[in-house]
Each structure stands twice: as C-alpha cells, then as structure tokens.
C-alpha cells in the first residue's frame, strides 16, 4: 500500500478537517522557507503529513512523490522519510504523531 494519497483533501486545506481525521494524534503546522530539507528522519511512532501550501517532494521508504496542496502522506513508525520544499517558494504542511489503525488503513 502506498504512503501517498495525492488528492486526499480539497483545497484550500482546512486544518480543523485534517485534525478531525486523525483523532488521538498530535497536530501542528510547519511553515518552511524555500529549499528547506528535512532529511532521513525515522520516528518510533506513526506520522501523517498534509500539504496545505506550496510544493513538497516527499520520500517514504524509497518511494518519492511531488506533493501539492491536498496531498496526504502516511508514514509508518520506523520508516525513513525526507521532505524537500521547492526552492521556488516556501510550504505549509500539517503533521501529527500517533498510531495508525481503523480508518487510517494501517494496523
């Protein structure tokens, strides 16, 4: 199963909608400058990322996609991932940590 759902949310992305979709997860917002790279992270808990503004190239376990606003990326615990914001403009993305299961499609 792919970590990526590229059109998961309508644009503009409403933060409260994303937060409601992930009960039991933390929720926060990153605002990255052009060219920001978060490389080779591994967490001991599941993470979701939803792109709200800009373009972010996201790589999860070797699978790479250019994610636009509305994209949802589900990153399982223990999996290496990297986020690269476009060099042309910054990005805004919502994220949270918790445990996938049920409606999130992962046990």
UniProtKB/TrEMBL annotation:
This is Cupin domain-containing protein. Residues 33-89 form the Cupin type-2 domain. Pfam families: Cupin_2. It comes from Ferrovibrio terrae. It comes from the Bacteria. The lineage of its organism: Bacteria, Pseudomonadati, Pseudomonadota, Alphaproteobacteria, Rhodospirillales. SUPFAM superfamilies: RmlC-like cupins.
């Amino acid at each position: 199963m792919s970590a990526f759902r590229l059109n998961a949310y309508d644009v503009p992305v409403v933060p409260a909608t994303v937060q409601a979709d992930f009960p039991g997860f933390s929720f926060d917002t990153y605002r990255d400058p052009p060219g920001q790279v978060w490389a080779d992270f591994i967490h001991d808990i599941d993470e979701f990322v939803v792109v709200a503004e800009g373009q972010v190239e996201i790589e999860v376990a070797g699978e790479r996609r250019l994610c636009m606003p509305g994209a949802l990326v589900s990153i399982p615990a223990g999996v290496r991932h990297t986020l690269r914001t476009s060099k042309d403009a910054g990005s805004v993305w919502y994220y949270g940590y918790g445990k996938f299961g049920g409606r999130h499609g992962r046990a």
